Amino acid sequence: MSDRERTSFPVLRSDDVCSLIQAAEDVYQIRFKNRAANAYLVRGSRRTILIDVGLSSNLAHLEASLAFVGCGLDDIDMLVLSHEHLDHIGAAFHFHGRTIIAAHRLAANKIMLRDDFSMLRKMFNEPNVPIDIDLWLEEGNLIDLGNFRLTVMYTPGHTSACISLFDPDKGLLFASDTLMPGGVMGGIFGSGCISDYIQSLERLKGLNAKILLSGHGRLSDAPQDDVRIALQRSHALLSDTAQLFDALDARANFEPIMQSVRDLNKLDDG
User: What is the pLDDT of residue 235?
Assistant: First the structure.
């Protein structure tokens, strides 16, 4: 953590698993020190939401951080899941019956069908228990908390189901794994797509964001720099991929495969 971050974003509480950091007034980051994604508490004048929730094994530490600012699990009006990966949603089943659980419709399908491959279950070794999604989110939905008004942005690329939340009045950008401080890329997983990733970053570039609240790592007060670097890296990755396919010369390698198929057909006909 840099000196600049310590000054701009005070650490309110820390234990061996997570730290509670104030990102803005009534906005808190719970930053886990293991492989779990960050969780964000946003306390509005009318409603309180939690954005992502981390791994189920961290629940007690999450509760302790929330309690530090006077918030219990039953005080959460909505849990918003940014996408289907279990490092972001593993503990969500603990909120069944306590609050509304929301996600983009594509993420909701994967989560409720218990698509272990898409959810990266082997990677995170989470309990194989159902997570129910109560509310399907779409591009342009507004989550009105009173003094916060968060617009849902569909930002695929990392996976096909990623969303970001943006408050244009306060300049708060909850970008999950689409954009991280320093322009670090969240990677392309399963249903993800590098061209979608670039288009999503271009959308984020056009926002007047002041604070980046990402899925992993520190907070950033330079989101425009972050997105510029991320776009450079994404275009470089796309170029490298194109060069790789050119080097493989797919057309030249395809013909022997088709000849083998034709030979097999001749054998069948004989």
Answer: 87
